[in-house]
Amino acid sequence: MPSADASRPPDPAVEVDDLTIRYGDHVAVDGLSFRAERGRITALLGPNGAGKTSTVETLEGYRRPSSGTVRVLGLDPAADHGRLVPQMGVMLQAGGVYTGIRPLEVLRLFASYYDDPADPEALLERVGLADRRGATWRSLSGGEQQRLSLALALVGRPQVAFLDEPTAGIDPAGRQLIRRIVADLRDDGVAVLLTTHDLDEAEKLADRVVIIDHGQLLADATPAELMATGQGEELHFGAPGGIDVAALAEHLGAGVTEESPGEYRVATAAAPATVAALTAWLAERDLPLADLRAGRQRLEDVFLRLTRSAADADAAAGAAPPLDGADRRGGGSRRRRPGRGAARR
């Protein structure tokens, strides 16, 4: 769980003020404002096409705002790019690493771009790849490539780290390793801004969560604050998708919503009588119960409710679907540009 000192005064390393990004007539990011502080992990969440990629690429200095301002460590990421790059680390889902290069070789190469780099040998050990130092990039598993990409983002001892889906495609042991490293970055005073679709990860790791959709801010709070707002005691359960929620709601005497396919919320406390009535209703229809949860909502529940409300409002207005920078290029993940994430002398 987040361990940052709540008494420490805020020290924003990333500042986004009224950011707007347009692609022709389309507005991908629409008046977005938020902060990411030093010694904190900030999770930037949103559905595909929400504007996350465009926002992060602007913070990294690879895209200019249409209007509004962004600052990283007090610098303009585009105008002061040369001064900023040595102070930030960037981890992407797919990296432009030479397929024949070996982990220790590429870490030493990246280390040569910095004045005071981390020790490549120690960093390789830290990400659990010491026994793979002789393997080529192409022979590493997807999870091993992810861990090496994280090491490349950290070799310059960054003050700000931008991590794009850091645990995507990684096995449970690898996820735990990466989460420990990210938590260590926070404890070392680094400002970490991560994007992820793993809401359980964001709930466990993040000190603050920023949720956006259609380029607009939906929420900016701690995970605990988000999970404590909007709903009281509820009952959540899993069952086959598309059940008759109106009939079930009438049977239970409480509203029932299908939050996502096969995931349902009952707007009432999980009293024994309610649980018994629910299981009986499912049993009468030979519908399996996948899981049953009572009490406080999860971050995923909040995320789905907020983004569903935004989607419903958009549909009512007849607006076109959102378009993010990744979608413009026909892909959902960003690839490393040559030299990206490293400061060349």
Characterize the structure shown.
A hairpin with a 2-residue loop joins strand 1 and strand 2 (26-37). Residues 325-345 have low confidence and may be disordered. This protein is α/β, with parallel strands linked by helices and 345 residues long. The chain is built from twelve helices and 13 strands. The two termini are 38 Å apart. It is globular and about 70 Å long. The strands form three sheets. The protein has a six-stranded mixed beta sheet. Strands 11-12-10-13 form a four-stranded antiparallel beta sheet. It folds into two domains: 12-227, Rossmann fold (3-Layer(aba) Sandwich), CATH 3.40.50.300; 232-296, Alpha-Beta Plaits.
List keywords for this structure.
single chain, 345 residues, Alpha-Beta Plaits, 2 domains, disordered C terminus
Topology:
Blueprint (H helix, E strand, L loop, with lengths): L11 E12 L2 E12 L3 E5 L6 H8 L7 E6 L8 H4 L3 E4 L11 H9 L8 H7 L15 H13 L5 E5 L7 H16 L3 E5 L3 H7 L2 E6 L2 E6 L1 H6 L5 E5 L6 H8 L3 E5 L2 E4 L5 H13 L6 E5 L3 H19 L7 H4 L17
Parallel strand pairs: 3-7, 3-8, 5-6, 6-7
Antiparallel strand pairs: 1-2, 1-4, 8-9, 10-12, 10-13, 11-12
Q: Ends: how far apart? A: 38 Å
- Domain module count: 2
Q: What portion of the residues fall into strands of 2 or more residues?
A: 15-25%
Total strands: the figure is: 13
CATH architecture grouping of the largest domain: 3-Layer(aba) Sandwich
User: What would you report as the Rg, rounded to the nearest angstrom?
Assistant: 22 Å
Encode the helix/strand succession as letters: EEEHEHEHHHEHEHEEHEHEEHEHH
